[in-house]
Amino acid sequence: MGLVRYIGRRLLFVAPQLLGIIMVSFFLVKLIPGDPAVLMMGPNASQQALDELREKLGLTLPLPQQFLHYIVNVVHGDLGTSWQTTRPVLDDLMDRFPATLELVTLALLVALLIGIPLGIVAAGRSRGPIRKLADVYGLLAGAIPDFWLALVFIYIFYSTLHIAPAPLGRLDLEVVAPPIVTGSMLLDSLIAGDFDALWSSASHLMLPVMTLGLVNAGPILKMTQSTVERTLSSDFIRYAEMCGLPKRTVMRQAVRASLPSIITIVSVLYGFLIGGAVLVEIVFSWGGAGQYAVQGVLNADLNPVLGFVLFSAVFSLVVYLFVDLLYFVLDPRTRG
Amino acid sequence: MDQSAALDAAPVASAPASLAGGPPGGAARARSGPVGFFLAVLRARPMFAVGYIIVLLMIFAALLAPWLAPYNPVTAAPDDYLQPPNALHWLGTDATGMDILSRILYAPRVDLTIAILGTLISSAIGAPLGAIVGYYEGRSAWRRALSVLVMRAADVLQAFPVFVFAIALVAVFGQSLASIIAAIAFVNIPIYLRLMRSQVLSIRGMRYVEAAFVAGASDVAILRRHIIPNAIAPALAQLSVSVGWSVLLTSGLSFVGAGVVAPTPEWGSMIATGFQNVTTGQWWPSVFPGIALGIAVFGFALVGSSIEVLADPAQRRLVGVKHAAG
Amino acid sequence: MADFQPATETAPLLRVEHLRVSYQSFESAAVPALRDIDLTIAPGEMVGLVGESGAGKTTLARSIMGLVPRPGRIDSGRIEFRGQVMAELPDEERRAILGRHLAMVIPNPRSELNPVLTVGQQISNVVRAHSKLGAAEARQTALRMLEAVRIPDPGRRLNAYPHELSGGMAQRVVIAVALACEPSFVISDDATSGLDVTVQAQVLELLQDMVRSRGASALFITRDIAITAHFCDRIAIIYAGEIVEIADTAAFFDRPAHPYSIMLLAAFSHSGDLRRRWTRTEIAVNGSAAGCAFAPRCVRRQPRCEAEHPALRTTHSGHAVRCHFPVEG
């Protein structure tokens, strides 16, 4: 029962925040110069045709009214149409968001596998080679632009060694995509039992996942290390040491106590990566949601941008909600 | 054993200890002043020295580029396109025949200008705002409402995908140096807002602040004299980190074509223009600017963490202390 | 230094010799925390260690356990527990002794107990770390210990988290943890300072009972000299990292010899006159490092006190006193 109240309170905060996000992005994107009607119909369109189109798109209405229309439509599941793809934005995003999600999720897993063990081991010692490695890795990972690392990997693994496929999308051209079930190319290939597609999608995922994973292991490493370090000098760990608990037990207690902070940074990173992976998506022509949004901004295509912002905000909120549930399980003090 | 240390150790009732013990830096000043202390820190943590050297080199490159660069950074030489690194062009040439080394040396002019100005503007807006918000929280009703409003606004801004938001801002203001700076400043504001607010919140409850309040000091005077000086250290440390991060963001903007426009030497746009060549095996147009960019960000991050250590008395005291066994 | 040891036949359980500990600092000279500490504790003996905050009490306790907090460092001297030098033991062997033979009762247990583990888990963790007991047996031990420290409804408290306990109850839990493995030596570091006065007396009595009934030794560290009077065999007074007086309890309260000891006792006295006589109001700032550490606050200060550091020596009444002009008779 405490749990339900807890979630209810969270959701209460979520609705106005979501509205705020849509509002800011709506007016921001509206401020981008460029007339969608002109862009859609081309420079040779007649004035009358342009006016008709503007009327049809609701561009002649005052801004607050346009916003209200947009909100009403969103509530009905209509995110508008992209003039670039001439398709409903919802459909476009349903195609592209899973691509981004698969990439980002796998990258985050790689980052966790590198960052958390290294951070924990480095926190336990104040010098030595592992500590040095962790310090340098943390600083380097924060300094390297991910799109540049992606290029370096393409040069090494595609141009030189020829082990990786060309950086052009999620599958080889001659491979037919498996029927969509989950949206994840790997899982869908497995479900369809299509091992050509499985191999092709895995090899296409390799470089972008490695790029994003290696770069984003940096913040996870730093956060894990500093949190575990702080916990190790806390009162209750000192007490555990005084009680002569074995080093492994003490370390386990410290990691356990650091989990909430680590989970927080991971969840923030997850939400951030949805939009933050866009440069790597562009390098690998991934066809993901971020790339779609950036194209939208650069071409005054309003609806894809708004749709993307909405999608990633909702995604972040879902992740945060899930994290709150985890806290609830992890820390007895929140249950009180 | 010198006298101040002896008195520090003596558990004498607080009055004489605080009189005679003085600030904990007492003996450090014996190390030939703040400069000597700073050098001692650099000796103990050589990585910090590396950071300062990198940052100084970047600034030198920006200032002295016309004398250092062997070629004009924006003159195309179509006959010399895509030369690999050689004696004439140490780092090779790009697809239009421009000398990569010269462009890398000129690039900090643009990158550092954008990053430093963007960071300064965002901290100049975010930090005072954060101080006021933190100070007003829990005071009279309308002030509390104001601070809640500002924090919720910051929540909304931070819920945006940073990169898409920055591109959108550049798109709104038009593609110019000023609008890139504005976009960078804007996305950095919430960081300083939060940092300063949490510091001020913890300091506001201190006795000396309450004493000043009881003594009838004005809000402005309390903020200026008591709160901001004690709360500013983490924000200062963040400055250098932000500069590095802003360089990354700037180059990302240029990479998608929403930042610095092509012939102007800038690391991110250099990487972007070299992109097509990488797939065909000409790695140098993209790889070298990326290394320069990485080194710059690395340097600013190191300087940031050195400031973090130096600004915190507890950490400062441990800098050179070898880990004692037992 | 042998002259102030109690006359015992058995080998001492704990022997601290010429211990010097200092805190290192990058900005200034190292700050000494303990200077030339000598202390021996026999099996079954209870010693009270009294001093104001900052005197080095906790540093001494941590040094005995081999856990000097960074940036502290043992400069010289040795600590022997059950014939072993703690500082030289490998990590694993030290852990095997701590909690098993040498246990600690801490102050403010609500912040020092692990917030995400139940009381039962915390006790049985320690039990299982030091024995071959299985989970169920360790839980039984935990329950027995909670009964022994007289916690009401122990079966239910076994599943309680630290934040659900009152201060007194948390203190009892810490005593249960400390005594769960039947240690031969217990250090109590200001263990009751955070409690209400009435609860304080109960908890102290409980701790004393449990230590005595198990035949263990104890070092009672406290700022409150009055509580040592009831159950300690000997009392040591520590000032500025030095033991300034050490004597059998009866002898100490009968005829305290060091001016600081008398000042501490006078603070509890009902006679304002006595308090005023032994407390210096104008404190000399120019204390000299070469002289007696207490000289700046001492009512009996002589020129010699500022020039020469006093050594610990035995008076006629059998006290060991670090003073040039001890109060005799």
In brief:
Chain A has 336 residues and is mostly helical. Chain A has helices at 2-31, 36-41, 47-57, 63-75, 89-123, 129-143, 146-160, 185-192, 195-232, 235-242, 247-276, 278-283, 289-298, 302-330.
Provide tags for this entry.
heterotrimer; A: 336 residues; mainly alpha; MetI-like fold; 14 helices; C: 329 residues; Rossmann fold; 2 domains; 8-stranded mixed beta sheet; globular
Which helices and strands appear, and what pairs or packs with what?
The complex is a heterotrimer of chains A (336), B (326) and C (329).
Chain A: H1 2-31, H2 36-41, H3 47-57, H4 63-75, H5 89-123, H6 129-143, H7 146-160, H8 185-192, H9 195-232, H10 235-242, H11 247-276, H12 278-283, H13 289-298, H14 302-330
Chain B: H1 3-9, H2 14-21, H3 33-44, H4 46-68, H5 100-136, H6 141-159, H7 162-173, H8 177-204, H9 207-214, H10 219-231, H11 233-256, H12 267-279, H13 284-311, H14 313-318
Helix pairs in contact in B: 1-2, 3-4, 4-5, 4-13, 5-6, 5-8, 5-11, 6-8, 7-8, 8-10, 8-11, 9-10, 11-12, 11-13, 12-13
Chain C: E1 14-23, E2 31-41, E3 46-50, H1 57-64, E4 72-81, E5 84-85, H2 91-97, E6 102-105, H3 109-112, H4 119-129, H5 135-148, H6 154-157, H7 167-179, E7 185-189, H8 197-213, E8 217-222, H9 225-231, E9 234-239, E10 242-248, H10 249-254, H11 259-268, H12 272-278, H13 303-307, E11 312-314, E12 320-322
Helix pairs in contact in C: 4-5, 5-7, 7-8, 11-12
Please give a structural write-up.
The complex is a heterotrimer of chains A (336), B (326) and C (329). Chain A is 76% helix and 0% strand. Chain A is mainly α and 336 residues long. The longest helix of chain A is centred in the middle third of the chain and has 38 residues, at 195-232. By secondary structure, chain B is an all-alpha fold. Chain B has a single domain (55-312), classed as MetI-like fold, CATH 1.10.3720. Helix content of chain B is 73%, strand content 0%. The radius of gyration of chain B is 25 Å and the shape is globular. The model of chain B is unreliable at 1-30 and 322-326 (pLDDT under 50). Chain C is of the alpha/beta class and 329 residues long. Chain C folds into 2 domains: 14-101 and 183-322, P-loop containing nucleotide triphosphate hydrolases (Rossmann fold), CATH 3.40.50.300; 102-182, no CATH class. Chain C contains 13 helices and 12 strands. In chain C, the strands form 2 sheets. Chain C has an 8-stranded mixed β-sheet with strand order 6-7-8-3-9-10-12-11, with helices on both faces. In chain C, α5 (135-148) crosses α7 (167-179), α7 (167-179) packs parallel to α8 and α11 runs antiparallel to α12 (272-278). Chains in contact: A-B, A-C, B-C. At the A-B interface, α1, α6, α7, α11 and α12 of A face α6, α7, α11, α12 and α13 of B.
